[in-house]
Specification:
heterodimer, A: alpha+beta, 3-stranded antiparallel β-sheet, globular, B: alpha+beta, Immunoglobulin-like, Jelly Rolls, 16-stranded antiparallel β-sheet, 9-stranded mixed β-sheet
């Protein structure tokens, strides 16, 4: 049996519809593959206003490691932040951009 | 670009609860803040979720304006010997110990000595991890780094007349091609003279001790002569020869903070910052797992450069709880420099008096377990897979990232990889604050956890006009059953996970006498901890045997040093959580919450009062914790695990996400059918049962329940059910 194609458009669409919560098995596999590829410096959010505003950053795993704020949008919606990071990770994995 | 959010003011108190008339000292550190205003406030809500009640506090008293100053935290454990004077007079000496270094090569680390700057002497690991003897400005190193986590006998002698230093290191196990045995001899021109105190696992620094040792030290000895090899071996084997100046036996008084010199010189010492005691020594052979049965096999102390018991800050001010202050959760609010910190504490009723018929047991032992927890801050992609969403760091997380010495939680590991088994409240605790959410719980870290997740219960009680005293786990541990006696109902918080024996005994006795309990949480009554018998505000945990463990206690180290009690899970010690609460831990996930659906038992006449005024079958499909009342950590009814056979399972959760998994104690063999989507054992059950002498227990089996109480201005079915049960439980007439 062959490996599932994790670049299928329907997985992108599924994530777009429901970024957090119950996912199909292949989307779960895709998400964890993308997360793992962050390596030792995962994407994180920095909450600048509780429940209302977040910035994107990378934070090296481990104690006292540097946090680097990334230029870009200020998110006022958590799902939008998830989507932005999904696109960054997906582009890194495939070498292609996801269109809006 | 916006600057990162920054915390400038942090504080802590000397006590977690006080009765009216009692005094609380408040310690504060303020960075770049000229002055701050202090106010006593009563806290009712810190729920900043768009659907929550917002921040609700009421000013009680002005506590004055105070100059800001920075107070540092000096982490790192060590022993200091008192009196040091006569040891300072040594001309020649021998020093030896058994060590189990955990971070050799991570900088210079002092095993023992009297050293400050370049005066005095020390037996140390040098920068490379090799054993070295330092005297004055001279260092004599074996030049051979020791291996981490391997026992070694280490020693040095200094002959003042011959000016000769000899250094020895002998690992107890050697590997082919990796022989780390070594010794070195050198002539030096220095003397031992110093005014520094004798210390173990650190040396005197500028203001605070420095050069902390990471790892275990066992049986250190100082002799007043430079002994030959045979002489060293004699005292290493325990002989107290005339030349022995001090021989500390760490296997004595393991529950305390004193180290005992078994030589006639009685140069006892004191441990600072609570290193881990009752640790396996070099002679542990596996024949005994309980240190109280064979203390001589547990003569090692594990020191860490990030241990912290008491930050030891000077008090900025003290406040006396005004007379007649109602019991509740209060805080010293500190405002200045554009920042505000709330340092919470409980005003409890005076001993022996009750201000209400209901009491909320604030789970402060569990707050300590999670104090300054760093998973979101330090995790990688695996944590995000666990959480199923991005983590979001708040100002408290960023403060912790900049203050690595602020003490760790029982979920963290020390810098050397060993588990953190001791947690204290005598330090700023950034996640024990109103308004704070957990970096990795809930979408974008928006779910409250522990303290801030429990405040909505106070908000709801106030809205419903139901009087309720507040007491803490620490009060219950100290006072036992008497603290609860007389209350008709005891309410728990959202996640009362950590219980000492005294607490557990008191709760069981309370329930046995007809007391009623509303367990409004999930994964409760799970771990056994011990409060220190003499030092205030500190608990110990051994993550033994099974259960959800972010670290795992080593085999043979399952018994707690504070009390000698077996550590780990209460359900393994004859105390079924299911029997106590009707439900027990079934699973956890940290993305979204769900709802309950009523079961046929909810139509049982015995449960009619619970559902009075409740329409429909779906309960709690709303809330500020993951959007539902069933979530995060959930408990189920299980007759096989001790749930009472007469209990009514009123409702059960549906549709938990596929990131909800059972705890390891439910996984004897992994399979691809474990997650909640395929495994109905992972669910929350809403349970009601009666207990002897007119008592009753109502359990929600979900951390998220309390987060649904305030939805729609307190008008919702979670609120209605909770109110129905609470008002019925407050009524003296029998139930069922």
């Amino acid at each position: 049996m062959s490996e599932p194609d994790l670049t299928r458009p329907e997985l992108i669409a599924e994530f777009r519809r429901n970024p957090v919560g119950r996912h199909s098995p292949d989307l779960r596999l895709l998400l964890n593959t993308l997360r793992k590829a962050d390596g030792e410096e995962p994407y994180v959010l920095v909450c600048t206003k509780p429940h209302r505003e977040w910035r994107l950053a990378r934070k090296k795993a481990g104690r006292g490691q540097a946090l680097t704020l990334l230029d870009g949008a200020i998110f006022t919606d958590a799902d939008a932040a998830e989507w932005a990071v999904f696109k960054l990770r997906w582009a890194r994995m495939t070498g292609r951009e996801i269109g809006e | 670009m916006n600057a990162l959010p920054r915390k400038r003011i942090v504080g802590y108190t000397d006590r977690i609860s006080a009765a009216p008339g009692e005094t609380i000292r408040v310690m504060v550190s303020a960075e770049d803040v000229a002055a701050y205003d202090a106010t006593l406030v009563r806290l009712t809500s810190g729920d900043l979720h768009p659907g929550g009640s917002g921040f609700i506090e009421r000013e009680i008293a002005d506590l004055g304006r105070h100059p800001g100053r920075v107070q540092a935290i000096a982490a790192g454990s060590y022993a200091i010997v008192d009196p040091a004077g006569s040891l300072a007079a040594l001309r020649s000496l021998s020093v030896l110990a058994f060590i189990w270094p955990t971070l050799p090569g991570k900088g210079r680390q002092v095993i023992l000595g009297q050293r400050r700057a370049r005066s005095g002497f020390a037996l140390a690991l040098d920068e490379t991890g090799a054993i070295a003897f330092e005297v004055g400005g001279a260092t004599v190193s074996t030049g051979v780094p020791l291996l981490a986590r391997e026992w070694a006998f280490v020693a040095a002698t200094f002959d003042a007349d011959a000016r000769r230093v000899v250094v020895h290191q002998e690992p107890l196990v050697s590997y082919p091609g990796l022989d780390r045995r070594s010794w070195r001899e050198a002539i030096v021109t220095q003397s031992l003279a110093t005014d520094a105190p004798f210390m173990i696992a650190a040396e005197a620094g500028e203001g605070h001790p420095t050069a902390h040792f990471n790892g275990k030290i066992e049986a250190p000895v100082v002799a007043r002569e430079a002994l030959d090899r045979a002489g060293l071996e004699r005292i290493a084997q325990g002989a107290i020869t005339p030349e022995v100046a001090a021989a500390w036996d760490f296997a004595r008084e393991m529950g305390g903070d004193r180290i005992v010199d078994r030589s006639p010189n009685r140069r006892h010492g004191r441990l600072v910052n609570l290193p881990t005691r009752a640790m396996k020594g070099h002679g542990w052979d596996g024949s005994e797992m309980n240190w109280t049965h064979a203390p001589h096999q547990y003569g090692a102390i594990h020191f860490h450069d990030d241990d912290l018991y008491d930050a030891g800050w000077a008090a900025d001010f003290a406040l006396t709880v005004p007379a007649e202050t109602p019991s509740g959760v209060y805080a010293a609010r500190l405002t200045g420099g554009g920042d505000v910190d709330h340092v919470p504490f409980v005003v409890r009723p005076p001993k022996g008096r009750r201000g209400a018929d209901a009491v909320f047991l604030l789970p402060t032992a569990s707050y300590l377990a999670y104090a300054n927890e760093r998973a979101g801050l330090e995790g990688d992609g695996h944590l995000q897979a666990f959480a199923n969403h991005l983590v979001a760091l708040g100002p408290g997380d960023l403060w912790l990232n900049d203050h690595q010495g602020a003490g760790l939680s029982l979920y963290d590991r020390h810098g050397d990889g060993s588990g953190v088994s001791i947690s204290s409240r005598l330090r700023p605790i950034l996640n024990l604050r109103p308004g704070v959410t957990s970096a990795w719980v809930g979408t974008a870290g928006t779910a409250p956890w522990q303290f801030n997740a429990d405040l909505p219960l106070l908000d709801w009680l106030a809205a419903k006009g139901i009087a309720c005293d507040v007491v803490t786990d620490e009060d219950l541990d100290r006072e036992g059953m008497g603290l609860l006696d007389g209350y008709r109902v005891m309410l728990t918080g959202s996640h009362p996970e950590y219980w000492s024996r005294s607490m557990y005994d008191a709760l069981q006795a309370y329930l046995g006498r007809g007391g009623r309990m509303m367990y409004l949480g999930g994964n409760g009554f799970y771990w056994r901890v011990a409060f220190h018998p003499t030092l205030p505000g500190v608990i110990e945990l051994r993550r033994a045997e099974d259960g959800i463990r972010d670290w795992v206690a080593e085999g043979g180290e399952y018994y707690m040093s504070f009390t000698g009690e077996y550590g780990g899970m209460w359900c393994r010690m004859g105390r079924s959580i299911h029997a106590l609460a009707g439900v027990g831990m079934a699973g956890q996930g940290f993305d979204v919450s769900t709802y309950y659906r009523r079961n046929s038992a909810s139509r049982d006449p015995r449960a009619a009062f619970v559902f009075e005024g409740v329409e429909g079958d779906v309960i709690g499909d709303f809330g500020t914790v993951g959007g539902g009342a069933a979530g995060l950590e959930v408990d189920r009814y299980d007759r096989a695990l001790g749930s009472p056979p007469h209990a009514l399972v009123l409702a059960s959760s549906e549709n938990l996400s596929d990131t909800y998994f059972p705890p390891p104690d439910e996984i004897n063999n992994a399979s691809a059918m474990m997650d909640a989507r395929q495994n109905t054992r992972v669910r929350a059950d809403l349970v009601l049962f009666t207990t002897p002498n007119g008592g009753a227990v109502f359990s929600t089996g979900s951390i998220a329940w309390i987060g649904s109480l305030t939805h729609n201005r307190y008008d919702n079915n979670v609120s209605r059910i909770t109110e129905n049960v609470l008002r019925r439980f407050l009524d003296t007439k029998g139930i069922g």
